[in-house]
Specification:
- By secondary structure, the protein is mainly beta.
- Helix content is about 0%, strand content about 50%.
- The chain has strands at about 1-10, 20-25, 30, 40-45, 55, 55, 65-75, 75-85, 95, 100-105, 120-125, 140-145, 150-155, 165, 185-190, 200-210, 210-220, 225-230, 230-235, 245-250, 250-255, 260-265, 275-280, 285-295.
Length: about 300
């Protein structure tokens, strides 16, 4: 008489089983282990609660069909973690950094334990761990966006663009030259980087605007000029010989200025060229001199 053997068990789908599906009463059967990708075989049992293990039977011991249950234990398998970095030219796309790729191991059916890497200039996006597949095909993909780098421009009293920003690794475009009354922009300290790498503050370096003066003596009144930053001082030569000094700037009398010298501050002035005239008395005669001042 031929009897049937039914093989079942938790996770039995996909298992390979070389045991016979039928036997005779006179057959002695030694059960062999089944196999399944991602699992370790833990024995054959006669009940689905896995309390009665069986390894086979002798001739004449089994006279009826029997159902056997395979017990499985989840095995340790590999999975892959890949890291993708945001591109510069196409910020909507990402490229895998193969040097960061990792192969990890975990238990079939459990969650992965992919770890975030600290990557200079990048910030990780949110991601989820996934269930580990038995066949080792599981891949966890982690994406990173580029940081926005900010360069703060300290204009030191000048006016112009105060911030530059861009994605990590992108090129820095030099801003328009800032302006400051009475000064010429010289440079940034420290020097602006060519690439956005890290946040930083950069201070404008200024030099006093160059002032030049052309002196024209009228009626033999001689004057000298000297400059300090944005201030030009006009002084009458042999001042002890003259009295009643009167100073004019662009034709307007400077009522507070009555000495033999006049300090003219061009820092806050809008025009680049000014006419300074001084008139003084000597022996009942009046003498004058003209100074043309240019702010370059």
């Amino acid at each position: 008489k031929a009897e049937q053997t039914a093989f079942r068990g938790s996770g039995s789908d996909g298992a390979e089983n070389e045991n016979p599906s039928s036997f005779k009463e006179t057959d002695a059967i030694t059960l062999v282990s089944a196999s399944k990708t991602g699992y370790e075989f833990a024995g054959w049992y006669t009940d689905e609660d896995y309390t009665q293990q069986i390894t086979g039977w002798s001739a004449g011991e089994k006279t009826e069909s029997i159902t056997l249950y395979a017990k499985w234990k989840a095995a340790t398998v590999s999975y892959t973690v890949k890291y993708y970095l945001q591109n510069l030219n196409d910020t909507a796309s990402y490229t895998e950094d193969s040097a960061l790729c990792e192969t990890l191991t975990g238990i079939t059916g459990e969650n992965t334990e992919a770890a975030v890497k600290e990557i200079t200039g990048f910030i990780v996006q949110n991601f989820n761990q996934v269930t580990i597949a038995a066949d080792g095909s599981t891949v966890v993909s982690i994406y990173y966006d580029r940081n926005i780098i900010t360069l703060t421009l300290d204009l030191d009293g000048g006016s112009g663009l105060s911030l530059l920003s861009g994605l990590y690794g992108s090129s820095v475009t030099e801003p328009d030259i800032p302006v400051k009354d009475g000064y010429t922009f010289d440079s940034w300290t420290p020097s602006l980087p060519s690439t956005f790498i890290e946040n930083g503050t950069y201070t404008a370096v200024w030099t006093s605007a160059v002032i030049s003066a052309t002196v024209e003596s009228i009626s033999d009144l001689e004057v000298t000029t000297s400059t300090s930053g944005n201030i030009i001082t006009v002084s009458v030569t042999d001042s002890s010989s003259y009295t009643d000094f009167v100073w004019y700037v662009n034709g307007k009398v400077q009522s507070d200025e009555t000495s033999s010298s006049f300090a003219f501050d061009m820092t806050e002035l809008d025009d680049d060229v000014y006419e300074i005239i001084v008139v003084a008395e000597k022996d009942d005669s009046y003498y004058s001199a003209e100074v043309i001042v240019k702010k370059n």
